[in-house]
Amino acid sequence: QVQLVESGGGLVQAGGSLRLSCAASGRAFSRYAMGWFRQAPGKERRIVTAINWSGTTTYYTDSVKGRFTISRDNAKNTVFLQMNSLKPEDTAVYYCAAADSLGELLRSGSVYWGQGTQVTVSS
What we know:
The chain is mainly β. The protein has one helix at about 100-105, and strands at about 1-5, 10-15, 20-25, 35-40, 45-50, 60, 70-75, 80-85, 90-100, 110-115, 115-120. Helices cover about 5% and strands about 50% of the residues. The N and C termini lie far apart (about 40 Å).
């Protein structure tokens, strides 16, 4: 099992940037695919981006391509989400997630979740 704690959320103006971090503890972090999901008010939680255990394969939902970057530091048990050119529609609670494979994350199958961090983008 793995425990996940997000940080770095906040309020930012449109066009600004934020960097989210997710610190993991528990079983070997480097064996997990990691991802970020988000849930806006009244909407379902959806995947934003994901990265495989080695960092060699990434996935981005179309709406964030070219603006968001996921990365991981296996030595520090941490995954990051750099968010640039933020838009009001990026406003949501962002959740860190871990799963045994990238496919499991993309299917929202057996996933470990963090508690979430609020990102608010003002227009």
